[in-house]
Design goal:
CATH architecture of one domain: 3-Layer(aba) Sandwich
Radius of gyration: 24 Å
Distance between the termini: 30 Å
Structural class: alpha+beta
CATH class of one domain: Alpha Beta
Largest sheet: 8 strands, mixed
CATH superfamily of one domain: Alpha/Beta hydrolase fold, catalytic domain
């Protein structure tokens, strides 16, 4: 249980209208260094102790994510792990005692293992091995064991194991032979809920009956569908799962495995992104992605009758974690201008008490910007959404520079939440637009498939159209619009400079793809399921080699004539460093300004705060130099002290 909780907390929504420019008398905000903005906290991995008297959480306040413990009623937080090198992610307390499960990899290599922290403080790996990945699935309902999936037997497939809480003996429950993803296990351990990607349009749901040694397919064969098991009911033979049934949005259903009868539990106008049961099985918690924000809902698990729960922060993204026994919950909410503070909610009275303040000391919330969801008509009339950040004090005629940021994926979605880079750029005078171009999730099945086999073209022209939208606000200088993105968004940056060479003033590529044939031929072994998705959405490196070369920027680098910044993690197992090295060398050969920064202790995504600070400062310096035309700054121009270990602003 507890699978949907805090991972949805730092997401969000905003109004579907353009941000209004400032009034004439609005004061300009104070300018902040990146160190000041990065002194905020990212809090996750919350878990209630078995008796609800304590909480654990993961925090990166000190620069490296570690686990802390505090009284659930408020008070000082005590570090339980003291990693100075690797990121530590809390999974949770053991259900019946105060041992703790957590996950960690090495330098961002994604070979994560599951560890136990014993009550006296010692830790050990319960999924040992050199080259495999271990993923936590869930706790058994009786708390006597937990379930993990690992690819130790075959690097392509994740098998399901049960690990005993007493002694940590490991037993194989399900041997995977077709790249299923294990999502849930029934309380009696008879049934295993599975999903499997067939292609980019179809993900089927299954239940494996361990007693009958039989695989039951829940979704119709031959019909496009997106389905995902969520949790079994406490009665065992009933599975909650999300499905779109081939329609636009995913909704929640429950199916009786004995009779096959399926009932609809909740069908809003947006995607249901997750569901779980309270520990006593009486309450169903559902999270919905409502226009780029997560919002929790509560239902009676037996009758599906909605239970009263006020929107924790209208216009923000929020999440909920119910206590094990009491009528209380932890709530986190962020509207973009504020990180996800943690509040204690009394479900009976609605009273909320601050527990953890995630804000950066010395940064006034009024100086930051809550992103707004805006929509515009693209080049062919398709409506495209995104999140707009307009600098405080901006007014028409200012001719500001702008950054269009493209998310990863393909198929991800930019969501409202506190992102220091976007706040940093906006605080220093850049309009920022996080585009959810065609092919993004969150806007329905039809929109999601509009970029299939049209990457670096149909979706890229949405970004070009977004430039026109920004110019039409009257705030932006048409000659100072930048394209930026990470992962797939990094590919879009390179594609923008190579295939639309006059559209953008510069590009910021953050571990982006430059060579599709090479990337698709060298995906990690444990991506057996995602490989099918990519081959059907982007292209098969054997069957579609010519097309993939056509859309790969590295083969068209001679077209690039605008300044380029490339950031890369040396341990990235997805986008290998050679992807960045090749494009950097070829663009430099054009005589174009290129800056290249490699982080030796990072993978696909920069996790360590010190590296994030270096990366974000470099981005602003690059943009100021090549877009604003400002002189290059020295590194000493922005230095400040990051909070020391243990500096947690607990309470308000």
């Amino acid at each position: 249980m507890g699978k949907i909780m805090l991972k949805y907390l730092l997401l969000g929504i905003a109004l579907a209208c353009h941000a209004a420019p400032a009034s004439a008398d609005e004061k300009s905000p104070k300018r902040y260094t990146i160190e000041q903005l990065m002194d905020s906290d990212t809090i996750g991995g919350l878990s209630w102790s078995p008796d609800d008297t304590k909480l654990i959480f993961t925090s990166n306040r000190t620069g490296i994510a570690n686990i802390y413990e505090m009284p659930s009623g408020g008070g000082a937080a005590t570090p339980l792990t003291n990693s100075v090198k690797e990121t530590v992610r809390a999974i949770g307390y053991f259900p019946n005692d105060e041992r703790i499960l957590f996950s960690s990899d090495q330098g961002g290599n994604e070979l994560a293992h599951i560890y136990v922290r014993e009550r006296e403080g010692t830790t050990h790996d319960v999924t040992p091995g050199a080259k495999h990945v271990a993923r936590f699935v869930e706790w058994a309902q009786d708390g006597k064991s937990f379930f993990v999936q690992t690819n130790e037997r075959d690097p392509r497939f994740f098998d399901l194991y049960e690990i005993q809480a007493d002694g940590y003996a490991k037993t194989l429950l399900f041997e995977n032979d077709k790249a299923y993803q294990v999502r849930a296990v029934s309380p009696d351990r008879r049934y295993v809920g599975l999903s499997r990607i067939v292609d980019n349009a179809t993900k089927h749901c299954y239940v494996y009956d361990r007693t009958a040694a039989k695989l039951i397919q829940l979704t119709v064969e031959g019909k496009p569908v997106a389905c995902e098991p969520q949790t079994f009911s406490d009665k065992g033979a009933q599975l909650f799962y999300t499905t779109d049934d081939g329609g636009e949005f995913a909704f929640l259903v429950r199916q009786d495995l004995a009779t096959g009868k399926r009932v609809t539990v909740f069908k809003p106008d947006w995607d249901v992104e997750g569901a779980d049961l309270s520990r006593d099985g009486r309450t169903l918690i559902v999270s919905v992605n409502e226009d780029a924000r997560s919002r929790p809902y509560l239902f009676d698990a037996a009758t599906f009758k909605p239970l009263h729960l006020a929107d924790p922060m209208p216009g923000a993204s929020s999440g909920l974690l119910l206590a094990n026994h009491s009528k209380k919950a932890l709530v986190s909410a962020s509207n973009g201008a504020t990180p996800g503070d943690i509040l204690l909610l009394d479900l009976a009275t609605g009273e909320r008490m601050p527990l953890l303040n995630a804000r950066a000391p010395g940064v006034a919330p009024d100086d930051l910007i809550a992103g707004e969801v805006v929509r515009f008509k693209s080049y062919d009339g398709v409506t495209v959404p995104g999140i707009l950040y307009v600098p405080k004090g901006a007014k028409k005629g200012d001719a500001l520079p702008a950054v269009i940021h493209v998310h990863g994926g393909p198929g991800d979605e930019s969501r409202i939440g506190y992102r220091p880079l976007q706040q940093y750029l906006a605080n220093h005078g850049y309009v920022v637009f996080e585009i959810n171009n065609r092919g993004s999730s969150g806007s329905g099945r039809t929109f999601y498939h509009l970029d299939d086999r049209k990457h670096g073209d149909a979706d890229l022209d949405d970004v070009v159209a977004a430039k026109r939208m920004l110019i039409d606000t009257g705030l932006v200088d048409s000659a100072k619009v930048v394209i930026q993105g990470q992962s797939y968004g990094g590919y879009m940056t390179l594609a923008g400079l190579a295939f639309r060479p006059d559209a953008f003033a510069a590009g910021v590529d953050i571990y982006g793809v430059s060579n599709w044939p090479r990337l698709l031929a060298n995906t990690p072994s444990w991506w057996e399921d995602l490989r099918r998705l990519l081959f059907t959405e982007v292209g098969d490196p054997e069957k579609d080699a010519e097309y993939l070369r056509k859309i790969s920027p590295v083969f068209h680098a001679t077209n690039i004539k605008k300044p380029l910044l490339v950031l890369q993690g040396a341990n990235d197992p997805r986008v290998l460093p050679v992807e960045s090295e090749d494009i950097v060398a070829k663009v430099k050969a054009n005589g174009v300004p290129v800056d290249y920064v490699v982080f030796p202790d990072e993978g696909h995504g920069f996790r360590k705060k010190a590296n994030q600070i270096v990366a974000y400062r470099k981005i602003l310096e690059f943009l100021d130099t090549h877009v604003k035309g400002a002189p290059a700054r020295t590194a000493a121009a922005e230095t400040t002290t990051v909070s020391p270990l243990g500096d947690f602003p607990i309470g308000q």
